[in-house]
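User: Before I run my own analysis I want an independent prediction to cross-check against. Here's the chain; please return only the structure tokens and, at the end, one sentence I can use as a sanity check.
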Amino acid sequence: MSVFATFIYGLSAALPLLRIDLRVSAAVGALHGTAMAAATIAAGLSLPLLTRAYGRRAVLWIGLAGLNAGVMLVMLASSLPFTLTGFALAGGFGSVMLYTAMAALSDHHGPAGPAAISEANAIAVVIGVAATFLLSLAAQSALGWRAALLFTPALTVVLVVTMGRTRLGEGPAASVRVTGRPDWRFHVACVVLFCCVAIEFCFNLFGAEVLAGRTGLDAATAATGLTAFIGGLAIGRFAGARLALLVSPARLLVGALSMTAAGWLLFWLSTQPLVAYTGLVVCGLGASMHFPLALAGVIAASGDRPGLAAAAAPVWAGLAMGAGPFVLGALADGFGTHTAFLIVPTLVALAVGGVLSARTRA
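Assistant: Structure tokens:
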């Protein structure tokens, strides 16, 4: 999961710099997110078949190999078709690896699976912070930002060595069959998940650009803005597991969305770097609970059909990864990135409305 974090946060921080190298518009640059999204959807649809055919261990290594191939292609490529292909390869194979790892982790820990996944996500985000920080440093050095992408294959080597011949239990996920039809609450929960993932990716892909435009920082220095956001994510995910034991999921998610809205307002209005960084940290603290709680909502709304939730989650997440940043990029080309970032409170409002309308006693 930490290897995946180096890819997703590293390439997100690199996107503004990649756009400068390729000399493309915001909307064209956002196609990299669309490529990742399309590949993630394909990965979600194919993962059950791959797991049944080859088993988790083989699928995990396949995902790792494809992820690194995509990252290396982005690092070496200098034209749009190749960078788009690199993002798609890394996104698709990375998702295969990520969902396989989470399934194995959950099965291994049994009833403590959700807590284990929450802690693993927190650790992965810490590694993601390191990836963005390294990229910012490399961008300001003679090495250039592309050299920082070597962090992903380097950490992969560490993973391969430390895992050795560790066995991965196949668990029940490989044989789950989707049966029955969900009610309207399930579809609303999926829309909430869509909004939450879109919010995070809007910050990942355009937060640094808004920071540069409002504060006057250069693109390389503004890339550290993503580090501030991810730092908030890391702190929030470590603390969120404790809060989830005390507060109902729906109430906690509404609170987390409200915190993100408050942080966004502070970030969006500020022209001072320190205040803007503070806003990004607050946004990260709120966003830290979006995905796990929204995913829990999808699972709860599916009733006794966990297979349905497992199949739907990556599809909706993939749609959000592509649609949110692409719409923001298109709006940025027409109205400027700062104005286009109003899409964030719009998504927050939709998510809060969905949570409140679909609340159940469960």
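Sanity check: The two ends are 30 Å apart (CA to CA).
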